[in-house]
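Section 5.1 Outputs to date
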Amino acid sequence: MTVEKRIGILVVAYNAAATLAKTLDRIPAEIRSDIREIIVSDDHSQDSTYLVGLGYQQISDLPITLIRQPQNLGYGGNQKAGYEVAIEHGLDIVVMLHGDGQYAPESLPEMVGPLLAGEADAVFGSRIMIKGAARKGGMPLYKYVGNRVLTRFENAVLGTHLSEFHSGYRAYSVDALKQIPFQQNSNGFNFDTQIIIQMHDAGMRIKEIPIPTFYGDEISYVAGMEYAADVTKDVIGYRLQKAGFGDGSRVTVKEEYELKPNEDSSHGRISMLLGSRPPSKILDLGCSSGLLAERLRDMGHYVTGVDVNEFEGVGERTGAFFKADLNQGIPPDVGTGFDLVLAADVLEHLPRPGDLLEEIRRVLSPDGTALICIPNIAHWYPRLRSMLGMFDYDQRGILDTTHLRFFTRRSIRKLIERHDYSILRLEAVGLPLDAIGLEGHKGHWVRLIDNLFSSLWPTMFGYQFIVEVAPRVHSTINLE
């Protein structure tokens, strides 16, 4: 194998004095000359692992860099340290090999092959790809069952299709590692799951190859139930952060707002309302990338969009687009005479939402109406967090970090009436289940229950309120 890419091997070792030299001996001859560096990272072992590594370094022709961590970093922490070295030393590929010999060094050529060919950003060795191989190789039944159950659950939640999530035999493109915040991951064994989540979220290519299974006398330091709980928390946490819940420490959502197309969510309900009306002239305030505007345009409406950001594609999705800060009012160039002004998820972002209501009155046609969508701060989710002393901002949703004002059903009524509008329609909409990955049949029963409770107790279970308003018309009496 004559290659141009710099291949590195990261050997993570803990109490591996009896197996480290044997593991290094098994590195096949066909790849030895192409290995630029073998980083042996002793995670502050309690035995003579470091001394064994030091002795091996003296007699071997392999390019070994030996590191002894000054304190035990944990399985994930040791990987972090090793990947940092791989980045600092300018390697192109790094393969993680366990010092206890559980994963076959003989498979190294197959592990790096897809990376050398540019077919993947990461390659995982799978013990499950060949039916029955894991059990024949000595994987205990309880571990096999746990592996299959967890992998199926992780695939379902994340939308991935991996045969195994829990193999420790992995090869990475160093450029790919540079692009993900692996330093923020756990120091424990669930590091491996977290790095899969990060690569999946970044749209990176993961390829699996079959590897042999070997279970010998090595000591397992994994606490099974604790590990299962950690990875379950990780994948569910990812789905929630992807939907905007949480602080975004691992997943940061785009500034662009996503379309919520389900008929029970705000965008779906707005589409249903306007889909039954004749073609009209609509002003979409806070239109984001124009995904909702595009839907309305396809129904025959002419939509003018306004947003503080000009996202890619917004000009094609709207009839006309104006970049403007609504805190400064609706730009005059937008014009007037709109049949409907749409302010979906806008008022809560403004320090003086009443000013925008006055601006809306100015641009409406004499018979025009405004359709407002507002999050409900009295929903059970922020109530529960406050009650438990866990109030904080999320990336999206009711507790969006960009929200400056909070509204209940009563307070939005008062604001609207104070600015001389009549309320024509006020209804609650439920959770945006499509935004958290519960589309179609997966969210059917959740949707039914949420709709039922929203109708019975809208101030508690209504996630958002949709309000249609019209300026009040005051009759003039001629006293002459």
